[in-house]
Write a structure and sequence with these properties.
alpha+beta, five-stranded antiparallel beta sheet, 8 helices, Structural Genomics Hypothetical 15.5 Kd Protein In mrcA-pckA Intergenic Region, Chain A
Amino acid sequence: MAKYTGPRCKLSRRTGTDLLLTSHGRSIESKCKFETPPGTQGSGRRQRLSDYATQLREKQKLRRMYGLMEKQFHKYYVKSSQRKGATGVLLLQALESRLDNVVYRMGFAATRAEARQLVNHKAVAVNDRLVNVPSYEVQPGDVVAIRNRAKNQNRIVEAMSVAAQLGFGDWLSVDDKKLQGTYTQVPDRDQILQDINENLVVELYSK
């Protein structure tokens, strides 16, 4: 699958916020001046955006946070719009239920990109069964664990150490010693990305 390989700082500056594309312990605020968008040549001014541009920027911000390409992201929107409930909330919950995101939320990886790599490299098991598909939908009650062959990887140990200090989401039960956790429930809206306005994304796709 195609993926973005350019400078992460530029993506964060474009949206004016940290997209969490770097590890827990390495803030990019010092070198990424979020208040100065790319192309302004140091003026620091952000042009006034139209409604469409505002909606597009919010969609791009959300899509890039989860590391998805446009086609895949749109599929999540279509699927969410066909279910009963608030489309925007259902979209966020679907994204949070991706295996690579759950691996990241449980602290086994420092970034979602790193979590995706762990899944692709067969380092993760769900309910004691190997799963190497990052988009796999984790269900409430599923146990996600790092396989024995990968437990000694330094990047996993280091990421887990930082995550254990920061804490985990209320919808997760994590054993940082065994490197496994349970996805206890689908997170509520107030537990997911408070700086995202999912309604703008819905408005964009509804046109």
